[in-house]
Amino acid sequence: MKGDTGFPRADAESDFLRARRRQVLSRLANWLRREPDDVNIMLPFHEVVDALGWVGERRIGSRVIQLSSIVGSVDRGRDFDRRFRPTSGRVRERWERLALAARRGESIPPIEVYRIGELHFIIDGHHRVSVAHAMGLGTIDAQVTEVRTKLDPAGIRYRGDLIVKDYRRIFLERVPLTGQARASVLVTDPWDYAELGEHVEAWGFRLMQDEGTFLDRPTIAARWFAEEYEPVVRMLHQADLIRGRTEAEAYMWVAGERYRLIRTHRWDDEVIETLRTRR
User: Fold this and answer.
1) Theoretical Cys-Cys bridge with 35: which of 30, 76, 158, 223, CB 3.0 to 4.6 Å?
2) What is the helix, strand, coil percentage profile of the chain, to 5?
């Protein structure tokens, strides 16, 4: 343990002051680097679930989890920052009491968490996690409830990332792609998902008009990907027109340019050559 002088109570007090000092220095560093306001805020569990789409949950019981995997909280209190350092002196008494128990080797109850993918969100045990971080521990005992969501939480680091996940979830409800198709259609700007969803729906409407029959969303999504998206993306790669974009972003760009240039939905060498000169 850090700062072990042989006087556990004094050491626990020092632990808290050290944790507070680090939190203040972290805030100062973030301000100097002009980082976003959400960089040091815990991820709110309910906002994460709303963005990813709740499917179900099951209690899986006692587990040993990595402290670094705990990124958020059910309670959106501001007593701790993203790394569970105290943000004020309000929690000092309880914090020092737990730190003293830990230094004396006393048994500390497991925390309770929700698990989404590889991420954990605290239901109960914020102070215990904060003390564990201050003690330099890597793991902690936890009672875990696993939550299943429509989207994988991979890629979520900050609260701002939830906007992209939320728009992607809505896009996939409008355009229910599956398998590799689902994984490959990605954009970085959340609003692009809204525009792409409208584009696919318009494409499906024209398809139904051409064929004179009703098609459901899964069918339209599958045919759009196979008959429109994949062939266009192949041509974009051949013409070297991806250029730092995702494939979906390049597709949206060229589809918009195609419509603006010739007000039609055909593809030919003349259109590709015109686009090449405009990149």
Assistant:
1) 30
2) 55, 15, 30
Beta bridge mates, 62: 143
What is the spatial distance between Cα 255 and Cα 120, in angstroms, rounded to a whole number? 40
- Tokens 């048994």 belong to 107
Tokens 């705990």 identify what position? 70
Strand positions, DSSP E, the chain = 43-44, 54-66, 70-73, 111-116, 119-124, 139-149
Which are the contacts of 68, defined by CB distance < 8 A and separation ≥ 6?
A: 138
Write down the pLDDT at residue 90: 84
Asked if residue 248 lies in contact with residue 197, where contact means CB atoms within 8 angstroms, the answer is no
User: 112-136, pLDDT tens digit by residue?
Assistant: 999 999 999 999 999 999 999 888 8
- CA–CA dist 97, 112 (Å, integer): 19
Closest CA to 118 of 145, 154, 85: 154
Chain centroid to CA 189: how far? 14
Q: What is the pLDDT of residues 244-253, one digit of tens each?
A: 899 999 999 8
Q: Which two tokens stand for residue 71?
A: 């990124």
Distance, C-alpha 191 to centroid of its chain: 16
| Single pTM value for the model | 0.72
Backbone angles phi, psi at 235, to 5 degrees: -65, -35
What one-letter code names the amino acid at 200? V
Tokens of 256: 């918009």
